[in-house]
Amino acid sequence: MLSPGYRAPGHAFAAIDRVADRLTSGPLWLQDHRIASLVSRSISMGASERRFYDLCAWVVMPNHVHLLILPLVPVPSLMRWLKGSTARSANRTLDRTGQRFWQEESFDHYLRGSHQLERTAAYIEGNPVSAGLVRSAEQWPWSSAGWQAKLPAPQSTKM
User: Fold this and answer.
1) How far lies 73's CA from each of 46, 53, 77, 87, in Å?
2) Taking the complete model, does pTM exceed 0.85, yes or no?
3) Amino acid 7: pLDDT
4) Is the residue at 19 inside a domain?
5) N or C: which end of the chain has fewer CB within 10 A?
6) From start to end of the chain, where are the E strands?
7) DSSP readout, 112-132?
8) Is residue 80 assigned to a domain?
9) What pLDDT was estimated at residue 111?
């Protein structure tokens, strides 16, 4: 069921997201650079090391995260891993033990076609710009746009 006044679920989602971008109270743990970095590393690890998904686009905002993925395992399994591992590490870093870090549910959207994928990736990577946090997507270090602009040097496995 759509919220009144919205033509499509995507429009309602975008409106809710704009409100979240401007919140200055409530859980804002992700604005802590240590937490944003650990969540960013875990998102990357879910694709590169765990092979839970192909990662298309992502962003860690001060109070929420967006992922555009092509899942390779059941979504509940990958979300359980991602939320569980990051919650434990974040709570330990913040000296919060045994407390909920993430909201219980996540909001999934199925996209059809490359046009929707491209538009959604642009929306995700542009989220920090539309929230007024940076002037260009590449300036936000906790996103696929920012990581692509400043890729870390590969670690050598040879001695």
Assistant:
1) 11, 7, 7, 21
2) no
3) 62
4) no
5) C
6) 53-60, 65-71
7) -SHHHHHHHHHHHHHHHHHTT
8) yes
9) 84
Say which residues have a Cβ less than 8 Å from residue 39's Cβ, sequence separation at least 6. Answer: 30, 60, 65, 86, 90, 142
Which parts of the chain register pLDDT below 70? 1-26, 148-159
Instruction: Report which residue type is found at 16.
Output: I
The boundaries of the domain holding residue 68 are 27-98+109-129
Q: How far apart are the first and last CA of the chain?
A: 59
Q: Is residue 77 part of a domain?
A: yes
Q: What is the pLDDT of residue 12?
A: 47
Q: Is 151 within the bounds of a domain?
A: no
Provide the domain count of the chain.
1
Q: What is the spatial distance between Cα 144 and Cα 140, in angstroms, rounded to a whole number?
A: 9
Nearest Cα to Cα of residue 37 among 150, 154, 155: 150
Q: Under the phi-then-psi rule, with left for phi > 0, alpha for psi from -120 to 50, and beta for the rest, what region is 26?
A: left
Tell me if residue 71 falls in helix, strand or coil: strand
Nearest-angstrom CA–CA distance, 38 and 64: 14
> What backbone torsions phi and psi does residue 84 show, to the nearest 5 degrees?
-65, -50
